[in-house]
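STRUCTURE:
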């Protein structure tokens, strides 16, 4: 039997699914909710649930504050908020990187998860890197006292995408992994030392690679799901999906 499913348009970071348990495990997934509007750099902690994981100055953009003066102008992938940080800086005496982190709804060991996000290179960047990824943990420190690259191996690496060089559009990166613990925190950023990076460059005079992050989604992939991109739909819009059921 062929059926028509009528659905209501929602934001990209929410997942419509045939099983209630296939939710997005990342609260405030697109940096929309905040305690105060950001007024300058290094204010990720004003975004509800999100934090700087190290002493490095990762950034939050919302309200009237954008990254234009810091790393180049960009609109949010959806909504108004997004975050960002330096992932490479030529000339530093150490391997400087900036991370954003938050608690998540705990994962279930043995379940496969899709981990995706929207990424854009700041257009004042000279370089792009290939080392973006997501590190999951459930028993490590809330924050780490360092400015250097983290000495951990991310469970999810987007290195196969190569250096992400798009400064105009948001690039959707997606990987899957099987949880081996009830992870309840994530850290987003670059996890490779400078001498192991693959770099590409564009024609600016800066000496860094700065990336924006938005629409962070972690969802179980053992059920039917539809991801709705609100670049085509507004909240409250309806659309039809054809599907078939066994007879």
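SEQUENCE:
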């Amino acid at each position: 039997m062929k059926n028509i499913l009528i659905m209501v348009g929602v934001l990209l970071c929410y997942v419509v699914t045939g099983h209630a348990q296939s939710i997005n495990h990342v609260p405030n997934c697109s940096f929309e909710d905040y305690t105060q509007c950001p007024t300058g750099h290094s204010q990720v902690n004003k975004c509800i649930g999100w934090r700087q994981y190290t002493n490095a100055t990762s950034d939050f953009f919302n309200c009237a504050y954008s990254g234009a003066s810091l790393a180049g102008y960009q609109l949010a992938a959806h909504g108004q908020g997004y975050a960002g940080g330096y992932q490479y800086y030529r000339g530093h005496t150490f391997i400087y990187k900036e991370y954003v982190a938050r608690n998540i709804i705990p994962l279930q060991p043995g379940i496969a998860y899709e981990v995706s996000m929207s990424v854009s290179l700041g257009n004042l960047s000279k370089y792009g890197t290939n080392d973006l990824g997501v590190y999951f943990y459930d028993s490590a420190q809330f924050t780490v006292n360092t400015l250097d690259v983290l000495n951990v191996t991310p469970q999810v690496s987007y290195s196969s995408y190569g250096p992400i060089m798009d400064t105009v559009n948001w690039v959707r990166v997606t990987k899957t992994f099987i949880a081996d613990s009830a992870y309840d925190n994530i850290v987003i950023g670059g996890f490779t030392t400078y001498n192991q990076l693959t770099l590409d460059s564009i024609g600016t005079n800066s000496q860094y690679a700065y990336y924006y992050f938005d629409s962070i989604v972690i969802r179980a992939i053992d059920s039917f799901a539809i991801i709705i991109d609100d670049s085509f739909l507004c909240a409250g819009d309806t659309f039809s999906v054809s599907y078939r059921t066994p007879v």
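REMARK: Residues 122 and 218 are 24 Å apart (CA to CA).
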